[in-house]
Amino acid sequence: MSAQKRILSGIQPTSESFHLGNYVGALKQWVALQDGNDAFYCIVDLHALSGEIDPTLLRKRTLASAAQLIAMGISPEKSTLFVQSQVPQHNQLGWIMECLAGIGEASRMTQFKDKSAKGGADSARVGLFTYPMLQAADILLYQAHQVPVGEDQRQHIELTRDLATRFNTRFGDTFRIPEGYILKSGAKIYDLQDPTAKMSKSSGSTSGVLEIMDTPESNAKKIKSAATDAQREVKFDEKAKPGISNLLTIHSTLSGKSIADLEAEFADNGYGDFKGAVAEVVVEYFRPIRAKALELLEDEAHLLSILHEGSRKAREVAAETINTTYRNLGIVQ
Ligand code: AMP
Ligand code: TRP
């Protein structure tokens, strides 16, 4: 047990389906990292409140997220799968992180700048601003060695390391300094319709987004209508051929074939044949995941019992860190 690395990651329950970008950029690694590590995976529902708040949807999406994570291969026996709000220590440490962070450094967070700019800075809420400090608490509570996330989370991990170092220096050794674990190749999946933009749930239209819970027909159709270019060579060239390069990345990541092998395999084919092959790989990859998730969602009591057990285990670890933190801060317990 003690030689294992502690892994912590989180994902927001902000839609009823994860998309391929979430899977390739983050969740696929979560599954792989369960083996040989002590992994804690958190559905960060409190973070989701920093966006649009809809109680019916939040409940539905939290359960849908849990079902998909288990269906993808997150095993409640191997790892601790839990819901952030069921572990009140996240709020407790979140406040402490807010008292440690400077307004200047928090203002430099690009996710905050992007998201607040989108809705107009005046309508942005305080929770969006303090989001990274709650994320730091998520990570530090579990004394995580590694935090598997997509490239866009690098800055939040850096902030977490800064806050942990600052706390340890001022108040005594309390937190392990975590490392980001960022997948380099294939880490970024682009929108099928606009292959220069990241595949994202917040893109205006879903026609370029491959969702795990979508029907096979719909996903196949989206791939077949993906934007490409006026040439006809299946070749990886992100600048000149972003659409084809994205499809090559998608195929390669899911099929395990190298990009070079795929270029050779489709050297004599047009884009139509290539898209058909990509569609088949994606549809067959998603099929069992979607089926298993739908099955889990049918028995809500069972799904909730899995989450309650995960949250119970998480609280045990989190409570220890909070005790040490409070003690080092001179908080009377
Ligand atoms: P989000 O749902 O956008 O908060 O993202 C959840 C996780 O998926 C984060 O760790 C992101 O870095 C990752 N992610 C989201 N979209 C993509 C994408 N298009 N390509 C790669 N990773 C992504
Ligand atoms: N901010 C992360 C994202 O947008 C989600 C997240 C919240 C997270 N807490 C975390 C990721 C802790 C890793 C560790 O994807």
Q: What does the main sheet amount to?
A: 3 strands, parallel
Indicate the mean pLDDT.
Answer: 95
How many strands?
5
Low-pLDDT runs: none
Q: What topology, given as strand order, has the largest sheet?
A: 1-2-3
Task: Specify the overall morphology.
Answer: globular
Our measurement of the CA-to-CA distance between the termini, rounded to an integer number of angstroms, reads: 30 Å
Based on CA atoms alone, the radius of gyration comes out at 21 Å
Verbal overview:
The protein has 333 residues and is mostly helical. It contains 13 helices and 5 strands. The strands form 2 sheets. The protein has a 3-stranded parallel sheet with strand order 1-2-3. Strand 4, helix 8 and strand 5 form a beta-alpha-beta unit. The model has no long low-confidence stretch (mean pLDDT 95).
Walk me through the topology.
Elements: E1 5-11, H1 20-33, E2 37-43, H2 45-48, H3 55-72, E3 80-83, H4 89-100, H5 103-107, H6 110-119, H7 126-140, E4 146-149, H8 154-171, E5 179-182, H9 216-224, H10 242-255, H11 259-265, H12 271-298, H13 300-329
Parallel strand pairs: 1-2, 2-3, 4-5
Helix pairs in contact: 3-12, 4-7, 4-13, 7-8, 9-12, 10-12
The structure holds adenosine monophosphate and tryptophan.
In short:
The chain contains 13 helices and 5 strands.
Label this structure with key terms.
3-stranded parallel beta sheet, mainly alpha, 333 residues, 5 strands, binds tryptophan, binds adenosine monophosphate
